[in-house]
Amino acid sequence: MIKTINKYYRRSNFIRSRIFILSILICSIGCENSTAQNKNSPSSASAKAQKKKDDALVAPDFTLADLDGNWVSLNQLKGKVVLLNFWGTWCGPCRREIPDFIELSKKYKKDGLEIVGVTLTSGSPDKIRGFADNWGINYTLLTDIEGNETQMVTSLYSQVTGQRITGIPTTFIIDREGYIRQRYVGPRSEEVFYKDLKPYL
Fold it and tell me: Do 70 and 34 reside in the same domain of the chain?
């Protein structure tokens, strides 16, 4: 009788352990399938896209005066692709870029390109206007009218990007949603700018 009972318990324990192992296997397979489905689900793809977007820095807003004394903020240009150029009338490499910016503005302003030159330590708005007229500049120039506003903007962009603006020209591509997509130090050609601008136009 005792042998029979022991035999029964051994068999019962064996069956229970088999059922337990089988349950774990089923649960594990189910979880793997669920994870695989989540990886390929639209919501997961959207999360990946969001993460990629989050890798880009938001361009800090600022407000500066144009040569007519009108205040212009970066936020007013949201919805356009902005080529933000820190430059000076006295800077040789900056002058080299001007014809390329003029051509880019002529060709792509209709597609939503807005070129903005933040003009550093270049004198009064009238002096900058004389320079701009001589060169045929056809895009927006912003400058100081109250003090050192432009220096505050360069400081702001240095802090946000973690890279100091120590030399000019320094140029940023900002997409239609206000994200910084490219940064250049030193002059570039129309072809280089257009190649990097094209995906956002």
Answer: no
